[in-house]
Amino acid sequence: MKKYILTSLAVLLISVGFSQNYVSGNIGVYGAQWNPATTIASTGAVTVGTGGNWWFGSIVTSAGIFTFDNTATYSNAGPTGYIEGVTTHTTSGDFTFPVGSAASPGSPYHPLAFTNVTSLTKYSTQYIFGTTPSSNSLSTGVTQVDPNAYWAFAYITTGSPSATISATVRNESGVFPSPQIFLAGFGANWASIGPNAATRNAQDLVSNNGITSFPSAFTAGVNTTTLPITLSSFMGTAMGCAANLSWVTSTELNSSFYNVEYSTDGITFYTASKVVSTNNITGARYAYTQKQLESDTYFYRLKCVDIDGTFTYSKIVKVKINCMGAQINIYPNPVLDNVTISNLPLNAQLSLFGTGSQLYVQKVAVNSEVKINMSNYAAGTYILQSTVNGVVISSIKLLKK
Predict the structure, then answer these.
(1) Strands 60-62 and 39-42
(2) What beta strand segments (E) does 223-375 contain?
(3) How far apart are CA 397 and CA 378, in angstroms?
(4) Overall average pLDDT of the 16-39 stretch
(5) Which among 125, 132, 119, 32 is positioned nearest to 72, based on CA atoms?
(6) Contacts of 136 (CB under 8 A, 6+ apart)
(7) Cβ neighbours of residue 256 closer than 8 Å, sequence gap 6 or more
(8) Per the CB 3.0–4.6 Å rule, which of 52, 87, 141, 389 could disulfide with 48?
C-alpha cells in the first residue's frame, strides 16, 4: 500500500483531466512509490524519505527543495522525467542527481553524478540553462566556459569527503574542442576541478575523481587558444518533410570538413552528411538539406574537423518536422489489396518505397485520386511519399497485410 505523509496542509489532485498537479504545501513519501502521471508543480518542499522511491511519471517543477534521504531512490528518470528545481541528497554511496531544464535546446535531462563518496555527505544542486555567473572570470588553464548552462551546487555537510563527479556535457550553447573539454568549478574564478585530469567517453560523459574541494557551480570548460574555424551562425528550418541547415563561418584555418549530425532525442547523434570545407581564411557559407524525414523533432549539430583530426562541436539547433500532409487522404491503411490516395496537390509526384527501393512512381497532373494495386506486394511497412518540384511534402507509413 502507498503511504503519503503530508507534512503541512497540502492537496494533491491526480487525474487524467489535469495537465498539471499543484501541491500547496510540503509532501513526504516514505517506503512506497509515487507515480505522478502529469507534471507536478510544488510551492512547498518534497521529501522522499528512508526506503522511499520516486517514480518519474513526468517532469517535477518545484519552488521548494526536493530532498532524497540517504536510502531513498528513484526510477524512470530521463528526458521526460526529471527535477527542474533545487535537489538535495544525503549520501554515503553513489547518487546521481536527476536534474534538468526544459529551456535546454538539446536534451532537457542533465544529471550530475557523485560516486566513490568516502563519508556521509549532504549535497544540493540545480541545473540552470541561463547566463553562467562570472563566465569571463577564468583561472590559468581555462580559456572558456559554457556561457549559458551550469549546475548550481552547495556542499552542506561539514568534514572532508572525497568523491568522483561526472556530468554529461553536450556543448549545447557554443563551440568547444570536445577532446579537450572538462568540468570547471567556480570558486574565486572558474578553474578545472580535482587533482587529476578529466576523462571523457564517446557519450560526452566527463568525470573528475578525487574531488575534495567542492565549488559553488559546475559547467563545461576548455583550455585552448586556437580554433580551426570561427562559426558565425548555424540555423535550421523545416520545409515539408525536409530540414534545411545553413551555417556561416567568419574564419577557417586548417579546416578539413563538417559532419552534419542529427538526433531525435538530443543525446545520441548520427552522421547525416559530410560537407568538405573551403578552408577559406575569410570564411564561407554552407548549406545542407536532410530529406525524407518523418514527422518528429530533430536536433542538429556540426562536427567541425581540422586537418589534423581535432574537432569542435557547434551549438545544437532544433527543427520540428510536420509532414503528414493532412490534406492527403490514404485508405485503407493497413491495406490488403488496393490502396486509394486522394486530395493530392497539383503537379505532385507520388512514390512508394519499400526496404529502401522505389517500387512505384506516378505524376499527378491534377488534383485527382490514385489507386495502387498492392495485392502482389509482400506484407510489411512501406513509405508513401509525395513531392512537389522535388520537395517532399508528405511521407506516410503504409502497412501491407
Answers:
(1) parallel
(2) 229-239, 242-252, 255-263, 270-276, 284-290, 296-306, 311-313, 317-321, 329-331, 338-342, 348-354, 357-364, 370-373
(3) 15
(4) 51
(5) 32
(6) none
(7) 228, 276, 277, 279, 305, 306, 307
(8) 52
Max avg pLDDT among 11-20, 224-233, 273-282, 287-296: 273-282
- Tell me the fold of 329-400: Immunoglobulin-like (2.60.40)
Q: Which long-range contacts (CB under 8 A, 24 or more apart) does 111-115 make?
A: 111/77, 111/82, 111/167, 111/168, 112/151, 112/153, 112/165, 112/166, 112/167, 112/218, 113/165, 113/166, 113/167, 114/163, 114/164, 114/165, 115/163, 115/164, 115/166
Q: Which of 290, 295, 291 is nearest to 275 (CA)?
A: 290
Give the cell for residue 258. Answer: 563538417
Helix (H, G, I), strand (E, B) or coil at 180: helix
CATH class label, 229-321: mainly beta
CB 289 within 8 Å of CB 242: yes
Quick one: cell of 333? Answer: 491503411
Q: Give the pLDDT band (50/70/90) at residue 258.
A: very high
Q: C-alpha grid cell for residue 92? A: 554515503
Helix and strand numbers (H, E) in the chain are: 0, 38
Lowest mean pLDDT among 5-14, 145-154, 392-401: 5-14
Rounded Cα distance between 34 and 200, Å, is 35
Q: Which helix (H) or strand (E) holds 113?
A: strand 112-115
**Grid cell 526506503 — which residue?**
51
Distance CA(30)–CA(51), nearest Å, equals 6
Residue position matching grid coordinates 584555418: 253
- Looking at the chain, the domain(s) classified CATH 2.60.40.10 span 229-321, 329-400
